[in-house]
Amino acid sequence: MNDFDYVDNFFCSIAEKEDTFGHNVLTHNEKIILAVWHATGLIQNGGLQYFFVWEDANPIVADYFYESGLYNASQIIREFFLLFSELEFEKYPSAKRDEIIENKIIKYKDEIELLNERFYEAMPEVESKLADFIRNTQGVLK
Predict the structure, then answer these.
(1) Which CATH number is 46's domain given?
(2) pTM of the prediction?
(3) DSSP the chain
(4) Letter string b/e over residues 101-138, b meaning 16 or more CB atoms within 10 A of that residue's CB
(5) Looking at the 3D structure of the chain, how many domains does it have?
(6) Is residue 30 within 8 Å of 14, Cβ to Cβ?
(7) Residue 44 to residue 65: CA distance in whole angstroms
């Protein structure tokens, strides 16, 4: 099984566990895997700007990338969130938050495109390092 399928299968089992028992029963490492793979799928399918359709879009996701050994991807996500530095995610109602995000995406279009390119180039590393993270922490995940 390749790294993508390995990670994706593991992600699906964690997502099923979360759907059945709730987010609070997940271990810290399971939360990392769930957040990193979910964020990766969103970014891969729509770019970093698409990341904001996810209700859990938050700069802490960069920490999860870092904890799983994905230092390059973590840095890219940190740089992306710096473009939105004055946006406090809990402060604004969703309509105002969406308006701010939309304006920032327009304003920083070129910078976001460069960050997207860097993230897409890092994708093979994301798959292999997240697969390694799962293999190395599997005993802790149960």
Answers:
(1) 1.20.1420
(2) 0.85
(3) --HHHHHHHHHHHHHHHHHHH-GGGS-HHHHHHHHHHHHHHHHHHH-GGGGGGSTT--THHHHHHHHTT-HHHHHHHHHHHHTTTT--TTTS-HHHHHHHHHHHHHHTHHHHHHHHHHHHHHHHHHHHHHHHHHHHHHHHH-
(4) beebbeebeeebeebbebbeebeeebbbbbbebbeebe
(5) 1
(6) yes
(7) 15
**Greatest Cα pair distance in the chain:** 45
Cβ neighbours around 19 below 10 Å, total? 9
CB-facing half-sphere around the CA of 22: CA atoms within 13 A? 2
pLDDT in tens, 1-54: 899 999 999 999 999 999 999 989 999 999 999 999 999 998 988 899 887 766
* Tokens read off for 84: 């939105």
The closest alpha carbon to 71, from 112, 131, 130, belongs to 130
Please tell me the distance from the alpha carbon of residue 104 to that of residue 107, in angstroms, as a whole number: 5
Q: What range defines the domain where residue 100 resides?
A: 3-141
